[in-house]
Amino acid sequence: MPETNRILVIEDSLPLATLYLEYLKDQHLHIKHVDTGAEAKRVISDNPPDLILLDLKLPDMDGQDILEWVKNEGIPSAVCIITGHGSVDLAVDLMRLGADDFLEKPITAGRLRTSVHNLLERSRLEHLVQDIQTTFERERYEGFIGSCLPMQATYRIIDAAAPSKATVFITGESGTGKEVCAEAIHNRSPRKGKPFIAINCGAIPHDLMESEIFGHVKGAFTGAAAERKGAAAQADGGTLFLDEVCEMDLELQKKLLRFIQSGRFQKVGSSKEEAVDIRILCATNKDPMEEVNAKRFREDLYYRLHVVPLQLPPLRTRGDDILAIAQQFLLTFAEEEGKRFEGFTPEAEVMLRHYDWPGNVRQLQNVIRNTVVLHDDILVRPHHIPPPLDTVLADKPATRYRAETEAPAAAEHSGDVSPVPASTTIRPLADIEREAIEHAIAVCEGNIPRAAGLLEVSPSTIYRKKQTWEQDAVE
């Protein structure tokens, strides 16, 4: 067992407590003994142990009171009751109150070791499951929405990097949320509450970029009618975010490197140096190493900035995060526009889920806003969604199967029925039905409720048919 496991023995009999310690001395445990309930509460409050061995009869209070207090306070310690007054009814009552095990005196060494080992192992597994659940239940994080594995990895990097002073180099396709990521790092850092200043290096002309970052004095160049404070000075004490940093002019890159190394800069047109305390975050939608190899980005600046790399995943790789983000946009825009939209039909969800989203979250935002502005309904339907998403369903096998199976019925009702060519092979309806269901399940990546929605049947129908097919295969 790991040496970090801590056990608290609450026993008023010193000989018995000494015996328990002797039984467990070779188990690599840190064991503490107390003989009163009051002292036990103090120790537990200060540093909750992994396991409590609790005698029911104490001089100042009943052990059951301590058990109830531990559970009511939400203390994450396993509790094993030890008593010389055991009965089945008492054991049941204590288990209902939250006791994890029950030992009746006299206790053998083997029984005690087994119980301790099992309780500590169960506690370890429970904590592991809780940690995993906590990780995967983070559906929202700062300005992000999403619980997929790539985003959970992003959240963990932000958690780890934010408290430090290290420069974070964020990469990702356009529209993946690089500025949202930078703000999340700032908000999770000790600089929260201080300025967060963002500059898009690709949106400012090269001849004005130096002034934007470092400022200028009056008369420094044509049009400089007054002294101006740059982003570096505005961000003093906080964070300066340089978006699309690879677009920066090579000469300015040289000055930026010197500024990062020294924390000092000169305004354009000034000979006076100024010092600031800022944290640099930067981002690009390009491959920075390719830019270095192409001599468009200084290698020394790259290695100065590339301390903690963080790559944001494209939206097309984020699975059902697409639907969660779309739902949030839908509700927000519907409220802004006074529309009734509340959700998406299964077909519309398939369209969103299977589109490639070259513009990522920014494109998704625009698509949902377009849908809300131009239409009004309770649910978003495929015909509400603008191009180029209208081609998605046409590429899906399940949709083709629905069209093929619905077309004959439509023709029959119209009265315009063409004779079936003699060469046409008539296939059993059960085979066609099975293929349609299997294709729908494949399109929906195993999500049977969503496949059922596309096929307009109950999910229980699909489950029942799958069970029948599996039984037929066995027979």
From TrEMBL:
Presence of the UniProt keyword Transcription in the record: yes
Organism of origin: Bacterioplanes sanyensis
Protein name: Sigma-54-dependent Fis family transcriptional regulator
Post-translational modification 4-aspartylphosphate, affected residues: D55
Region (Disordered): 403-423
Ranges of residues in domain Response regulatory: 6-120
GO biological process: phosphorelay signal transduction system; regulation of DNA-templated transcription
One Gene Ontology term of the molecular function aspect: sequence-specific DNA binding
Keywords, alphabetical: ATP-binding, DNA-binding, Nucleotide-binding, Phosphoprotein, Transcription, Transcription regulation
